[in-house]
Fold this sequence. Notes:
Bound molecules: histidyl-adenosine monophosphate
CATH topology of the largest domain: BirA Bifunctional Protein, domain 2
Strand content: 15-25%
Structural class: alpha+beta
CATH class of the largest domain: Alpha Beta
CATH superfamily of the largest domain: Bira Bifunctional Protein, Domain 2
Amino acid sequence: xxxxAPKGTFDWLPPTSEQVLAVREALVAPVRRAGYGYIETPxxxxxxxxxxxxxxxxxxVSKEMYTFPDKAxxxxxxxxxxxxxxxxxxxxxxLHNGRLPVKLWYSGSQFRYERAQKGRYRHxxxxxxxxxxxEDPALDAELVVLGVQGFAALGLTRVRLLLNSxxxxxxxxxxxAALQEFLRGLDLDADTRARIEINPLRVLDDKRPEVQxxxxxxxxxxxxxxxxxxAYHEEVRSLLTASGVAFEDDPRLVRGLDYYTxxxxxxxxxxxxxxxxxxxxxxxxxxxxxxxxxxxxSVGWALGVDRTYLAMEAEGLLAGDTAAxxxxxxVALGDDARRRMFLLVDELRRAGVNxxxxxxxxxxxxxxxxxxRSGARFALILGERDLAAQAVQLKDLTTAEQTEVPLAQVxxxxxxxxx
Length: 419
Ligand code: HAM
């Protein structure tokens, strides 16, 4: 083998790839029903969009971006996430000047130079939904409910919802100061000490046991919320409860991106080991201003398609084959018969019958083997003699029964049989 897919990437191949498509569709179906419109943005953007939007001090920006100069010397970055791009597009096209909130969904590749392991890739797929330009706890609750519905539609039963609030401009600074004071008193390495000064919330997310052990008494953001944030959070919680959505309050949930304010949440699956987050999101009321736009309070989530697939595997939900099954397979012998079969196959497909044919000039034996392997129920066999008689042999591959059908009638006959 001369080439391999780059480290941390992989190929989705049939039939698994069909199941991934089905996962993607199931996850976005609820948001499409809720009035979210499809948006597609470029896979690369101005590097500064992510530096400013996601945050200079996050791992994503400081360690994981695929950044490169283009031929004119612009610094571009393959998108590590899609929220900043969606907001950029909304501002660029003035969508926020129309009806609010602007509701959008997306589906696509994201790129992060992470340490590759099962469930953590350098090229992965997300579907996401963003509601921009409204501050309303019902909107936060709506998105969470729609995420829950997506996972439920796939049959997943072991997805848990973790919920937190990170406060806002009014209360976050005092919490940050209290957290910094606590962290400065701990026994930490130089890098982590530096992080206390730049981004203390990130320290709470440190997975190392020796760090976690020292964090037990750390001040929690929920204890420092201002009255407005507390009321907002309570409303989100009670709407979720009223909707019958189970959630766990997780006061240590901080997320890996800097733009969050107030509501933050994560969907985790217990069958996935350390890479347990199958989705996450929250409110990002300040992001528009960080990118030079007007105030545009917004909320959204992104769900990991690859990890959701792994979660389905962990729950044994991947048994069914979702590929469009072939129904008819054409076998032609001789050049004239092959030309006629080419047209017949096209006619059958137009009539809605899933059809393929033997290519590559195989003999009858090889072509019939192909018919057997194709999974189709019927084979259509057309020899020179059949062609002269304007007929075709129709073979039911499950019973081996063979009948002759006039060429002029075969499309109707097959339409009747495959329905
Ligand atoms: P995120 O938590 O960084 O959030 O990613 C969302 C989901 O993408 C994760 O929960 C996970 O399922 C999947 N994911 C992330 N990194 C990887 C990886 N290396 N390999 C496989 N899957 C991965 C965001 O991206 C935010 N933009 C979400 C958001 C939207 N917040 C507001 N709006």
